[in-house]
Design goal:
Blueprint (H helix, E strand, L loop, with lengths): L3 H15 L4 E2 L1 H8 L3 H17 L4 E4 L2 E2 L10 E3 L9
Antiparallel strand pairs: 1-4, 2-3, 2-4
Length: 87
């Protein structure tokens, strides 16, 4: 299993590689980190929620901002809009 810092780095790296205005599925991050990617999904979602709280990424569902902790179903991760400061 990957540690939280590795997951956070993988999320941010994937979002930056995708670029502004583009999103990715959290499963892409999990798959890149582990063959047992399904077991890693709760950790990826938890890291995404924390990173969203910190302003590093945005978490959306159907194009609308959501809380990854409470969202049910597919979510997307991406960089915040350029008019927001990334801490």
């Amino acid at each position: 299993m990957s540690d939280p810092d590795t997951i956070r780095t993988a999320i941010l790296t994937a979002a930056q590689e995708r670029g502004p205005g583009k999103t990715l599925c959290p499963s892409e991050v999990a798959r890149a980190l582990s063959d047992d990617w399904r077991a890693l999904m709760p950790s990826v979602r938890a890291a995404a929620a924390a990173m969203t709280d910190e302003g590093h990424i945005v978490t959306t569902q159907k194009g609308r901002p959501i809380d990854a902790r409470t969202a049910r179903g597919p979510i997307r991760l991406g960089l915040p809009p350029r008019d927001r400061t990334v801490r």
